[in-house]
Amino acid sequence: MEIRLVRENKKEYLDLLLLADEQESMIDLYLERGDLFALYDEDLKSVCVVTRESDTVCELNNIATCEQFHGKGYGKKLLQHVFSYYRGTYQTMLVGTGDSPWILRFYEQNGFVISHRKKNFFIDHYDHPMFDNGAQLVDMVYLSKIL
Question: Is the dihedral of CA 32, 101, 112, 46 positive or negative?
């Protein structure tokens, strides 16, 4: 297993990034200013993008694992890597996500705690309704983790 920091041609990972954030214009807001990490286990399994938000805070903007590899620990392994990578540089990592029980559980199992919400985020910022397991996503739920 190998995790690479990708500095060029980040759009080559767009298909995988779109699994976690299905609107390309939203990905464009953070992709080039963020650090993209790619986890390979023979071939590409998972990616994530982390941005600097302040001197003490970074944000996990996107983490996606190829659907056929969900539940195999690749997302967790990638998170552990970025926690280690940014520990000592930032104090806190934020992540914003839809109000979806299975996604929130993933983050909570990896040490994040719910911080705050941005009301109507998905309605105000996306050009189409967003759904998870049949439920429309409305608010962005932010979670934080002390690094």
Answer: negative
